[in-house]
Write a structure and sequence with these properties.
This protein has six helices and five strands; from the N terminus they run βββααββαααα. With about 220 residues, the chain is of the alpha+beta class. It folds into two domains: about 10-125, Mlu1-box Binding Protein, DNA-binding Domain; about 130-215. Strands 1-2-3-5-4 form a five-stranded antiparallel beta sheet. A hairpin with a 2-residue loop joins β1 and β2. The relative contact order is 0.09. Pfam families: Bro-N.
């Protein structure tokens, strides 16, 4: 086996799963598989596998693989497809619907392995954007709510401008001058601030929708 081993990393939910191809067959880092299956001791777990299901890979000439505190890893346990299935079968939660091990099992068998067999590697880009899919309804709801709030803000602004116009006409008809800090001048100041806020909100919304369309 070549010592200049190149790992490919992909993500299962929030966990990194590293794999490599040896003799056209996929092998997985046992520590990553065990972590996804909630198995605490990966060394002990793979030691109970058949000899043809796992091996210890010497990484003395491999760069870029470190442990949790940044130290260069000298060797790692890896399991092949058969070894991974054995680990899954020994994990009780892997058959419990809704559990992380169950989701991992379904994901590996339905997505990762078929694509590795077909292309020789697993491409993360082939996965749907699950985060966006999950939150898309909520994003659309927030967008609708913001549009409604902006509509009511515009209506309130228009009512205040009309009220200001009518009151100003009334003051002029009665010959009353606006002197100093009156409630009307305060409202006029508020109107100007409201005008700016509405216009600024419209600009923010246009930018938001432009960015959103990129998805």
């Amino acid at each position: 086996m070549s010592q200049s081993t190149q790992f490919s990393a992909f993500n299962f939910e929030n966990a990194a799963i590293r794999t490599l191809i040896i003799n056209d067959e996929p092998w997985f880092l046992s520590v990553d598989i065990c972590s996804a299956l909630n198995i605490s001791n990966s060394r002990d777990a793979i030691s109970k596998l058949d000899e043809d299901e796992y091996q210890i890979l010497n990484l003395k000439d491999t760069v870029g693989l470190t442990d949790g505190i940044g130290n260069q890893v000298q060797s790692v346990g890896i399991v092949n497809e058969s070894g991974m299935y054995t680990l899954i079968l020994r994990c009780r939660d892997a058959v419990k619907k809704g559990s992380v091990p169950h989701r991992f099992r379904k994901w590996v068998t339905s997505e990762v392995l078929p694509q590795i067999r077909k292309t020789g590697q697993y491409s993360q880009n082939s996965q749907p954007n699950l985060v966006l899919d999950i939150h898309l309804p909520r994003i659309k709801e927030m967008d609708t709510n913001f549009s409604q709030l902006l509509y009511y803000a515009k209506e309130a602004r228009n009512v205040m401008w009309e009220t200001d116009r009518m009151v100003t006409q009334l003051y002029e008809m009665l010959g009353i001058q606006l002197v100093g800090h009156t409630s009307l001048t305060t409202k006029i100041k508020l109107l100007k601030e409201m005008d700016f806020a509405v216009e600024n909100s419209e600009e923010v919304m246009r930018k938001h929708r432009h960015s959103f369309r990129q998805y």
